[in-house]
Amino acid sequence: MPPIDTATSLENLKLERDAIALYDALATIEQEPRRRAAFERIAGNERRHADIWATKLTEAGAAVPPDPGNPRPRIRVIVLLARLFGTRAVADLVKALEGDEEELYESFRQTAPDVAAIAEDEREHARIWDSLGAESTDRAGGAISVASVARSASDIGQREAWHRAGGRSGTLRAVIFGVSDGLVSNLALVMGVAGAAQENGSIILLTGIAGLLAGAFSMAAGEYISMQSQRELFERQIALERAEMEAMPDEEQAELATVFRAKGFTQAEADMIAARLFEQPDIALDMLVREELGLDPHELGSAWGAALGSFVSFAIGAAIPVIPFVFSNELPAVLVSLAVSLVALFIVGAGVSLLTGRGVLFSGFRQLGIGLGAALVTYLIGSLIGVSVAG
Length: 391
Fold this sequence. Notes:
Blueprint: H1 6-29, H2 33-59, H3 73-85, H4 91-106, H5 113-133, E1 135-137, E2 143-145, H6 146-149, H7 153-159, H8 161-196, H9 201-247, H10 249-262, H11 267-277, H12 281-293, H13 303-319, H14 323-327, H15 332-356, H16 360-385
Antiparallel strand pairs: 1-2
């Protein structure tokens, strides 16, 4: 494998300096001593990593650039979210960063032992985050292990903070893409009508509002039907599994033993575990549903919640191109609508980068380009048709 070049060393030095800035900020924000100490420990590791890359640059005869103290936008956004909502709320986003770094350094494992050590540190950082999430704090301020108070595997899942954060990240994804759908579709609709009826801002406003309501109700109805159908399917599968347990418990117990046998237990151990679980039918059912059906009985989703979320997020996005026409019916309102929508598209794209890990500028301009393309095409079509809607 070729040696690590100067450009790569510079890029990795910047990556580590960003991590230092992130964990220093998290340590400053965090009030709980144990979590603050963990962040300080990770920041120390990141400083050591930065020193490794600085040394490699020096050995290669390259100048080590000064630390500008200005991390990339993704880091600044995570720090802002941590200041607003606490460090637990950004756990998934930070762990995604750690995963990106670990994957990057894995490609250098055979190049240099010190780089392989960095990859191991990144894996340790992920384990530290897991350990932080696996404990809660009692009223006296002491740490309580989730395993010591949980009654079942599903209870552990409910108590572990990073799993709950996963659910929130799913909600964040739905909100971002709901806003994106509303913004792009209604911007295209408004621009198409503006191309055909430039002299009549009232018609453009009416069309924009109609598009907002129609799209929001359509999204909500579709999300409700989809989520409710999925929920009913899952509930039926769980009910069938419960009926099988009642009708033929011996066979179901043998199936559960087979599951544990596949996980590496001996036949005797698997039989003993399955027998013990079947002493508590609810726990046995929970285990069978998870292992055989791949479902979490406690997280089937809310159809009404999904519908409301889709309605609101779509309506927020769809309202942006319409708002300028509320204040003016003149032609400049079209330009203001387009400008405001393009800014909003960039912001939405930047929000997507929090989920995908891509650069803020790349994601922002990609979203802006898609929305602008749709707007220009529909405006051109509207202008060519030239249908008069004023009278």
